[in-house]
């Protein structure tokens, strides 16, 4: 028996352990199955339904969240492995009254049909623009290449990312001027 298999057999299948997460700026102390994915905990324990279940295999991007500001696929991230890190879901980006610039750009460009992929598209865009505030179209395409949209809304989504880049730069300029 391999070491991995022995480890799996030795473990109680549904054992629960304390798990301290920081989600959208709030500390949450939970009892979570040792094997639970971050997506499972966000959706089922914290009722944050921004992250969507698509493939469950880390291949479609529907479940994207930010971990310390960087996009990650919550369906393949073990919840216990991200204790204490800053996790941001779609719900933590903006509010109805004060949208995040990326959310605003997606609405202004009408970049959605069914909307199922939008959680991943928006959070991947936030991650991209944080690292690269003025991406070229080819950089945008590359960054979003692992996020699938079954409705074929890609043209509008790319337009929305370009608009989001402009809005984010303006937002950062005005926050800087107010200091
Ligand atoms: S549901 Fe996580 S990448 Fe598809
Ligand atoms: S808008 Fe339907 S999957 Fe993208």
Outline the fold blueprint:
Elements: H1 3-10, E1 16-23, E2 26-33, H2 38-45, E3 64-67, E4 70-73, E5 86-88, H3 101-108, H4 118-131, H5 137-144, H6 154-178
Parallel strand pairs: 1-5
Antiparallel strand pairs: 1-2, 3-4, 3-5
Helix pairs in contact: 3-6, 4-6
Bound molecules: FE2/S2 (inorganic) cluster (FES) (2 copies).
The strand order across the widest sheet is 2-1-5-3-4
- What is the 3D shape? globular
Q: According to CATH, what is the topology of the largest domain?
A: Ubiquitin-like (UB roll)
Estimated share of beta-strand residues: 15-25%
Spatial gap, N to C terminus:
62 Å
Structure description:
α3 (101-108) packs antiparallel against α6 and α4 packs across α6. This protein is α+β, with helices and mostly antiparallel strands. The radius of gyration is 18 Å and the shape is globular. Helix content is 40%, strand content 15%. A hairpin with a 2-residue loop joins β3 (64-67) and β4 (70-73). It has six helices and five strands, in the order αββαβββαααα. The protein has a five-stranded mixed beta sheet, sandwiched between helices. It has helices spanning 3-10, 38-45, 101-108, 118-131, 137-144, 154-178, and strands spanning 16-23, 26-33, 64-67, 70-73, 86-88. The protein has two domains: 15-92, Ubiquitin-like (UB roll) (Roll); 101-178, [2Fe-2S]-binding domain (DNA polymerase, domain 1, Orthogonal Bundle), CATH 1.10.150. The longest helix has 25 residues, at 154-178. One FE2/S2 (inorganic) cluster (FES) binds at residues 112-117, 149-151, 153.
